[in-house]
Specification:
mainly alpha, 255 residues, EF-hand-dom_pair, calcium ion binding, two-stranded antiparallel ribbon
């Protein structure tokens, strides 16, 4: 008979945490999906449709003398051309619903398009509204003629204070931060650019620059993760947006 004195007792295995049942996991996914759908629906209800209110009644647009003639006064500045794509009815005013439609037109999903519309119009719009101009509630209009007033800090200064393109500043982006290839940026190099542009305590500027560049990188990077110089250049004059919309339409027509 073995002596109990020398016997060792094996450590009892720690009890495993019970795994959630499949029904519980399914309920979680349903709740997450429902929450996501609810938030998206709320955003879209706030965005509404340009020129109409939630109950379908027509909302008065700003008078044509206020902004619509921006397209008739001669050549647009590069910054005005940059945003003109999102002025879907070309009346000189970009409502949040038009920003949403513009992002959808270039292939962005509903959540990204809705969030971009709220953020961009909410951040830039108030700076561009002319004095004594009455605007529809919740539509967050951006006035194309005054878009230069919405220029935020912590950027690369590729646009000057008047909305003009500064080639030297654009070239500087790639000279300083394109380490892997001279004509493209990786995601890491893009982050380096954003950090280099940050001004102290300019939280709105940080967020503005982060959103603009990250969305551009997400939409336009190639299969190897490069954002090409020509692509970035096309953003600054707005031609990229039209190209993306045409490419999307072409794919839809052939599918």
């Amino acid at each position: 008979m073995e002596s109990e004195r020398g016997a060792t007792t094996a450590a009892a295995p720690s009890p495993r945490k019970p795994r959630p049942e499949r029904s519980q996991l399914a309920r979680r996914h349903v709740l997450r999906g429902a929450s996501f759908a609810l938030v998206t629906a709320l955003l879209l209800s706030v965005l509404g449709r340009p020129g109409s209110s939630r109950d379908g009644a027509k909302v008065r647009r700003p008078s044509s003398s206020s902004m619509a003639d921006v397209y008739e006064q001669g050549e647009l500045t590069p910054l005005q051309r940059h945003v003109a794509f999102f002025d879907r009815d070309k009346d000189g005013v970009i409502y949040s619903s038009e920003t949403y439609e513009g992002f959808r037109a270039i292939g962005c999903g509903v959540p990204l398009s809705a969030a971009a519309a709220i953020f961009i119009n909410g951040g830039l719009g108030p700076k561009t509204i002319p004095e004594n101009e009455k605007t529809p509630p919740f539509k967050l209009p951006i006035y194309v003629k005054n878009i230069h007033k919405g220029k935020h800090g912590s950027d690369s200064d590729v646009y000057d204070a008047h909305g003009r393109f500064v080639p030297e500043k654009f070239e500087e982006i790639f000279k300083k931060h394109a380490h892997t290839r001279p004509d493209a940026l990786t995601g890491k190099e893009l982050q380096e650019l954003l950090e280099a542009n940050r001004e102290p305590k300019d939280f709105k500027g940080w967020l503005g620059g982060f959103t603009e560049w990250k969305v551009l990188y997400y939409v336009c990077k190639d299969k190897d993760g490069f954002l090409h110089k020509d692509t970035a250049r096309a953003v600054y004059d707005g031609s990229l947006f039209e190209r993306l919309e045409n490419e999307r339409k072409s794919k839809e027509s052939t599918s």
